[in-house]
Amino acid sequence: MAEARPVIGLSSATANQPNSSDEFSFWLAPGVIVNPFDIVEAEQVAPEGTSRTFGIVTTLEHTTDAPTHLSNFISNDFGQVSGEPNTARQGTTVARVAVLSNDRDIYMPVMNDRPVRFADEAGIHTALGIDQVPERYRVPAGLIQMSNGTRAVVYLDSRYILGPEGAHVNITGISGLATKTSYAIFLIQSILQKAENRNRIGVIILNVKHGDLLTIDQPPPGGLPPEQHKLWEELGLTPQPFSNVRYLLPHGKDTPTTGRPNSFCTPKGEHSLYAYSLADTYDKLDLLFSNIPDPWDTVGALIGEIQQGLSDPKTGQWGPKKQWENVKDWDQLLDGPPLVDPSTGHAQQVGDVRAVSVGRFRRLLRRIVRTRQTGIFVRQRAQNVQRLSEEIAKIRGGKTIVVDIARLADDEQTLVFGDILRTIYALYAEEGSEREDLPEKVIIFVDELNKYAPVRERASPIIEQVLDIAERGRSLGVVLFGAEQFMSAVHDRVVGNCSTTVIGRSGSAELASPAYRFLDPAIKGNVSRLQKGELVISHATFRQPVKIIFPKPAYLQEGAESAA
Predict the structure, then answer these.
(1) Is 111 in the same domain as 155?
(2) Do residues 242 and 217 touch, judged by C-beta distance below 8 A?
(3) What is the DSSP string of 285-328?
(4) What residues form DSSP beta bridges with 534?
(5) In terms of domains, do 475 and 341 share one?
(6) How far apart are CA 425 and CA 396, in angstroms?
(7) CA 81, CA 75: separation in Å to the nearest integer?
(8) Does the pLDDT of residue 485 top 70, yes or no?
(9) Angle at which helices 298-310 and 355-366 pack, to 10 degrees?
(10) CB 3.0–4.6 Å: which of 199, 232, 461, 477 could bond 239 by disulfide?
(11) Which of 458, 457, 453 is nearest to 471 (CA)?
């Protein structure tokens, strides 16, 4: 009952600051502590009895009856900092509140002198519209923790994360302080435990930093601290590492002699190596050249000639035509015909592509696959080294695939990420009806999303692939979880198609960019003061962003083993 909770203040409307249907003010009773992001409720008029208008505190101001600061200086005996002031000022703290909802859909302005209370858990769920979401669609996303000690679970609507109503999650914030990767892994774990048809959801995770995500199937040494365990339980979740995990690790330069992958650590769980021979890559060369400027499309035209020459016209698979029959590996492509005239050893014209452009292509390709490569490009794959696209295509519901790209060069990372997106997109957009064992949904998580879909006018194959997923993924069942330090550096069509945006601590300069215009200016100031483990989450069904906390992931994180 609302009456059982103490009144913390009364609503206040003045000639200069009227209340509106979108916001209202209230003054605080003496001794009451309120902070930004607290959710409060005010009694509202209704045809029969009263209703409740819920809102989120955005700013707090203390005001007095002093007309100027000089008045306060004079009243303290012209600047004496000790002793009682000559004139005692009357003052109060006033909170400004952004309206979230009304439990009877009455959005009249809150009248003057209406009681205001902290919302309880049920009230918070009403304020956010969670009470309108059926239980089977609720996914725990974190806890709201208010100044009076009230805690409430924040649920997201899975229909706006996994589709069909909306999809995709973007997580942004300063490196280290925002805990972006930890939150993404926590949210995926929550989905796998609580989402409807969770056994029909597949997960693909790209490990981009050290060995952070190469131990997600291992429990932390000694378990989680009691307070973290309690957080998991409050959310209705079981703190546990991932199960049914398979790791795909890149082939390295010394792999043929040592057998070790080009990774910061080797997982204890099931793992395989992957590499790219020419036969694996000839139809993905456009992805490999995504970061190369090509204003006249000469590189693109030559890639088209190569793809046509190396593919069988009947099957569309690898099958070099007559003039390309000697091209079997990277060296033969770079140094032999038809790109090179065997009599002179110089580049020659191929189709409509002039020799000078062929020479530029060879220089670029040589740098990528020979001089600056990390070992992922091989002449022929060994029997125990897999083709990445074939392994990704084996995704099943309830399975998690972790693809390590942490030690790869930028061009190699772009190829791998694009290969994964293209493979999954083809499965769902072209072949979905033929595969009964295909998961209903696939979640793809990648950090440093700005590297693959940056803000720039020049289109590229990788950007087009990411945009296809962002704009059509919700209807296909392909969901992108992206993270980056600066949301302003990500293509606006990718960010705009995310139904859920999660913001960790960010700098004021970043928050001033147009990407954050959906945030109230007062909220932006609070975002720059967030602590580690605190996030602001904006969801499609929430009228205002809310601040949450979340538990630490329940898997062995890098550095934890040595610390233990």
Answers:
(1) no
(2) yes
(3) HHHHTTTS--TT-HHHHHHHHHHHHHB-TTTSSB---GGGTT--
(4) 549
(5) no
(6) 15
(7) 11
(8) yes
(9) 80
(10) 232
(11) 453
pLDDT in tens, 264-306: 999 998 999 999 999 999 999 999 999 888 888 899 999 999 9
Number of domains, the chain: 3
0.85 cut: is pTM over it? yes
Same-domain check for residues 443 and 528: yes
- Name residue, tokens 């994180």: 557
The enclosing H or E element of 15 equals none
C-alpha R_g of the chain? 29
Neighbours of 510 (CB within 10 A): 21
The label of the residue with tokens 């916001």 reads 23
Q: How far apart are CA 63 and CA 172, in angstroms?
A: 35
> CA 344, CA 340: separation in Å to the nearest integer?
8
Q: Are strands 441-446 and 478-484 parallel, antiparallel or unpaired?
A: parallel
Please give the backbone phi and psi of residue 51, each rounded to the nearest 5 degrees, phi first.
-120, 180
Q: Give a three-class secondary structure readout of 221-268.
A: CCCCCHHHHHHHHHCCCCCCCCCCEEEEEECCCCHHHHCCCCCCCCCC
Closest CA to 97 of 54, 145, 47: 54
Helix, strand, coil percentages (3-state) for the chain, rounded to 5, are 30, 25, 45
The H or E element containing residue 519 is: none
113 with 66, same domain? Answer: yes
Domain that holds residue 311: 278-371
Summarize pLDDT for 298-340 with one digit per residue, the tens.
999 999 999 999 998 888 889 888 889 999 999 999 999 999 9
The residue among 353, 371, 389 that closes a domain is 371
| 242 and 335 belong to one structural domain | no
Strand partners, 547: 536
How far lies 188's CA from each of 33, 44, 271, 291, 433, in Å? Answer: 35, 39, 21, 30, 26
Task: State whether residue 464 is helix, strand or coil.
Answer: helix
CA atoms within 13 A on the CB side of 416: 32
